[in-house]
Amino acid sequence: MDSATLDAMQTSLRGPVIGPQDPEYLQARKIYNAMIDKRPAAFVRCADAADVMDAVNFIRANGLELAVRGGGHSGPGLCLVEGGVTVDLSPMRWVRVDPAARTAQVGGGSQLRDLDHATHGFGLATPTGIVSMTGVGGLTLGGGHGYLTRKYGLTVDNLLAADVVLADGSFVTASETEHPDLFWALRGGGGNFGIVTSFTYRLHPVNTVGVGITAWPVDHTREVLTWYRDFLPQAPEDIYGFFTLFTIPPGPPFPEEIHGRKVCGIVWCHTGDPDRTEDALAAVNEPAPPVFHFTAPMPYPALQSLFDELIPTGYQWYWRGDFFDRIPDAAVDVHLKYGENLPTPLSLMHLYPVDAAAHRVGREDTAWSYRDAVWSGVFAGVDPDPANAEAIKQWCVDYWEEMHPHSMGGSYVNFMGQGEDQERVRATYRDHYDRLAQVKRTYDPDNLFHANQNIKPAQQH
Length: 461
Prior knowledge:
Number of strands: 18
Mean pLDDT: 97
Radius of gyration: 22 Å
CATH architecture of the largest domain: 3-Layer(aba) Sandwich
Shape: globular
Strand order of the largest sheet: 15-12-14-13-17-18-16
Distance between the termini: 36 Å
Structural class: alpha+beta
Number of domains: 3
CATH topology of the largest domain: Vanillyl-alcohol Oxidase, Chain A, domain 3
Largest sheet: 7 strands, antiparallel
């Protein structure tokens, strides 16, 4: 971008426009995943929806590349575009709760912690992810799953409306009654259809929850995972637990004698009576004696931020994912193999339940096409040291390749990593892809919004 174009952009927009010569530029291009190193020509920090409209019009009129940044948490770094313009929504962090209607309207640049803090004051919450620094935008548009999913469904199952700036710079509200085709596509179709400047969510009564962490030696993975695959899908919907392979971090609540040990474990959330959590989880002794078991009542936002300090912004990340409807014995053996060989202390594997309430939404009701999945798996190599980037990536890719034959073929779109091809995007949406491509043609026929896991506009016949 030449300096005249940059000057014109700075003049036409209300929010600040940051170019490579500005002192804030280096900080502006830092995102959650430090493995990503892209240099946009400019960042547009949008103050409001009108600013987003002006930014989209300017970018389109000048033939520039466009990316959108909400929380900056995109694993493949899709919120940055080399030599183009990042529309940065981070100034648009606000939440308005209507406790009587049990709804919350949330600015497009908000993070999960903003939503959780605002709703918790009223004893309410909606299902989102498990890391509080995640942006609501990317998480929601990909579908969204977390601790409340078995009880209250996916994030998109609780989305009531979205305010969207379209590729032509116009502003619409999408809901069941307004632009229902767009609303359908936004619920799982990613950032393909426009820039969402606010989301309106349905809220549920959630206040203090029972939290549990159970860990077993990693060599008990076979016994624990075969127990878990049967126990969890049959458990009451108030019991949520994601299975994980990880290394015990040095610090509370873990006792010093197990710091640094490779383990398999389950992180629990109990939305029933928090004082009955221990009773609800009594079966954890069945597969093998745990080396660690902890339960405590906790305010829901505290659970949501439990892992934030372990995995702060600025580490090297490489991740991939897949959906699973079963965990056969052969898959259990693969998990044991890679759990015993975690490449760094922060590398991990998670299997998140996406059953129960998430299964009660019709397969055609949203763009999320895996209503028959039971788990959403993610394999993540993580380390602060760039020297370990190749090692953590290779471990992740090898693990994913061995597990993929046991998967349903596609992935949660937010767990797709760098460099995954168009076939993987199609596999994520299955037979919804063609319908999404039709919606894309209606709302973004020239594919302005393509810095994402891209759905190309359907061709005109």
